[in-house]
Amino acid sequence: MYSISLEGDAQRMRRKMQRIADLDKKKLNRLLAEDTRDATLERFKTGKGPDGKTWKTSIRASSEGGKTLVKTAQLRNSIQSSSDKSGFAVGTNVKHAATHQFGEPGRTIRAKKAKSLRFQTGGNWVSKKEVRIKIPARPYLGFSDDDQGTMKHTIEDFLQKED
User: CB count, 10 Å around CB of 86?
Assistant: First the structure.
């Protein structure tokens, strides 16, 4: 059996603990989700992962111009956030999202509906029954040191407004 004895202004501590328990966690998590989504979208502008490393330029971006991972903006535009009182999530349901986040060390793609795959490389059209692809990881989801600082600031602002 344990027993705790408090001396001094225990009422003040109880009030503070009650304020923390009564915090609008749903609202706080919504704010943190928005911060995280904004930081993720910024990565598509800068072409840098949460670790600060620049993404390897894609073959398409180097041959056509433009930015890596932003040809149609489908992936970038699919980034969503959700939150409730227990936490928040930021992510996407785009089929190829994981391939870009984690990379693909080597996969074979085979023609299924046609006789061959037809694609352009180096300005020339090529037809092949199968192609082995390698895609480097280009992480866009995650937390950078700056993201964590922003989240800390958001939490501090939120707590000050709740006092």
Answer: 8
Residues in CB range of 76: below 8 A, 6 or more apart:
41, 44, 69, 70
Place of tokens 């992480």: 139
Q: Residue with structure tokens 């989504």? A: 37
Rounded mean pLDDT, 145-157:
95
CA distance 153 to 142: 18
Cα–Cα distance measured from residue 141 to residue 78, given in angstroms and rounded to the nearest whole number: 12
CA distance 119 to 41: 30
Q: Model pTM?
A: 0.79
Tell me phi and psi for residue 31, to 5 degrees: -65, -40
149: nearest Cα among 32, 25, 23, 26: 32
In the chain, DSSP finds a helix count (H) and a strand count (E) of 6, 6
Cα separation, 151 vs 126, in Å, equals: 49
**In 41-78, which positions are buried (b, 16+ CB within 10 angstroms) versus exposed (e)?**
eebbeebbbbeeeebeebeebeeeeebbbbeeeebbee
pLDDT score recorded for residue 50: 97
